[in-house]
Design a protein that fits this description.
Number of strands: 0
Largest sheet: none
Strand content: under 5%
Number of domains: 1
Shape: globular
Distance between the termini: 12 Å
Radius of gyration: 22 Å
């Protein structure tokens, strides 16, 4: 057990070194976040200006606190656009990570080009993900408390089952349902390493988050003392650092996912990872 934990933290350290060597990979989560914001705005503005929310609330109350049917269509469209953006950018990042693991020097253009080559698979998986998202929302609305619990459990199970779907789609070019089956197969082989490795990554990210919290707290204290310009500046810095931390977190977890996938699928140690650590992590017995 202790050896597995040690190997998990070693894998996390290797993931961190890959990102520090190829810092430009952080651009993919940043682009993903920007596109996600555009999606939110493109839905929020029409909803805010075209919907009579007083009438909407009356309809919900008259229907036992259940939203009108049209909201599910809007939710499906929103989920689809959101998932498409996230999956596309993650596919680009995974493509670059796999190129790096095999001794190449990937560029941002390489990642986006390879993601474009997987558009049919990305489109299909976004459709499946949006459908599941809406179905979970329907389950949640069936009963206020029980529905929320059941939807949460089903959502967690779905997230676990589809852990490896994106790298499978990128590399193996198979359909969504086949990708889910393949993901489950790979997860059976790597669940321990995925759990402990992510724990190691989260520990590193926690250490990086502490200074951000300190800057934020100092900003609040300074504002309370009446030093508004300095306090506002510190709050802005804390906000920027938080966004950067979010991008780093997303990049690290996606790179780690790509490394796990390559070793589990091809029995090849990714370049930049310690052979003994990754081979020891996957030893069974």
């Amino acid at each position: 057990m202790f050896e597995r934990i040690s190997n998990g933290f070693s894998l996390a350290g290797s993931t961190w070194r890959v990102l520090t060597r190829d810092k430009h990979l952080i651009a993919f989560p940043i682009v993903s976040g920007f596109l996600f914001l555009l999606v939110v705005v493109s839905f929020a503005v029409p909803m805010a200006t075209l919907v009579d929310w007083d009438k909407f609330q009356q309809q919900v109350q008259a229907n036992n606190n259940k939203p009108p049917v049209w909201t599910y269509a809007v939710a499906f469209a929103f989920y689809f656009c959101t998932y498409f953006v996230i999956i596309f950018c993650n596919s680009a990042l995974i493509s670059c990570a796999l190129l790096r693991f095999n001794g190449e020097t990937p560029t941002l253009a390489d990642g986006f080009r390879m993601a474009m080559a997987r558009l049919p698979q990305i489109f299909a998986w976004a459709l499946v993900s949006a459908t599941v998202g809406v179905l979970l929302k329907v389950v949640e609305n069936v009963h206020e408390k029980v529905g929320e619990i059941v939807a949460s459990l089903l959502g967690t199970a779905w997230s676990i089952m589809t852990f490896f779907v994106v790298p499978v789609l990128v590399v193996e070019k198979i359909g969504p349902m086949q990708a889910v089956g393949r993901s489950i197969s790979l997860l059976k082989k790597t669940w321990g390493e995925a759990l402990v490795g992510n724990m190691g990554l989260n520990f590193i990210l926690l250490l990086l988050f502490i200074p951000i919290i300190l800057v934020f707290v100092v900003g609040i204290v300074v504002l309370a003392k009446g030093l508004v310009p300095v306090g506002v500046a510190l709050m802005v810095v804390a906000g920027i650092l938080f966004l950067l931390h979010t991008a780093v977190s997303s990049a690290l977890h996606t790179i780690f996912l790509a490394a796990l996938y390559q070793y589990a699928a091809d029995d090849r140690v990714p370049e930049g990872f310690d052979r003994r650590a990754i081979e020891g992590a996957f030893t069974r017995g």
